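User: Can you help me understand a structure? I only have the sequence.
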Amino acid sequence: MNAQQLTNVGTAHHPGLPLPGFGLPEERMARAAAQTAFTELKYSFMRATAEIEGGMGLLLQRQVLLAKEAVELWRLRGAVFAALPLHSERSRMHKADLHQQLDSVFPDCGHINGFAAR
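Assistant: Let's start by predicting it. Here is the structure, written out as C-alpha cells:
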C-alpha cells in the first residue's frame, strides 16, 4: 500500500449517510431542543431563587447554577417552592413560570408529590 491508500483506509464515506459522530438531523434537532428547554428551565429557576433571601437563597442559587441536567433542577423544585415567600405576587409568578417550564420538560410528572396544585 502506498501512503495515499493508507490515509484513506477507514475514512470512506458513503453519500446519503450521516457523517460518523454527528448523528442524524432529527437527533441533532432533538438535542438542540432539549438544550434549549434546559436553558429556559434553568433561567426560570435562577429568577425564582433570586427572590429567596438569606442563606437558603444563596444555597439554592448555587445549586441551580451548578445544575448540568434538567433532572437536577427537578429535584430542587420542592425546596425552591417551599422557600419562595408565601404572600408575594412575584413568588406566585415565579411558581407559575416554574410549573409551566417543569411541565414542558417533564410532561408526565406534573402530579408527583402534590406540586400540580396551582
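Now, to help you interpret it: The CA atoms of residues 3 and 9 lie 10 Å apart. Helices lie at 3-8, 25-49, 54-66, 70-83, 89-105. Let me know which part you'd like to focus on.
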